Amino acid sequence: MRLILNILWIVLGGGFVIWLEYLIGGLLLCLTVVGIPFGVQCFKIAGVGLLPFGKDILDAPGGSAIGCFLNVLWIIVAGIWIFLTHIGLALSLAVTIIGIPFAIQHLKLAMLALAPFGKLVRETP
Predict the structure, then answer these.
(1) For 60, which DSSP code?
(2) Could you state, in order of their start, the residue ranges of all structural domains in the chain?
(3) Relative to the CA of 78, which of 12, 25, 36, 71 has its CA 20 to 30 Å away?
């Protein structure tokens, strides 16, 4: 079932476009030394954005002050806009019954995109 939902996500839910946007953003951020930690987070979100079904997002144990500072910086610069985009997409998909599973995945991506530092992505058993 995960395979079918992931294929439908890539084709109909915008998964390929989301993956490509986060991948390009991560590559551009990694061009500078200061942007490397933010680029790594973009790659993490891109992985979830391509194949979100069957993945969970967990809080990493022992969050650091540096991670908190980077999350605040991320939210101010880009996180809030990315979050609102995923929320808008989730609301538009939740209008139909068929779109509800995709809307749930956009909500999952919205929470990860709001504050990616200190989050772990793992496969659902």
Answers:
(1) P
(2) 2-123
(3) 12
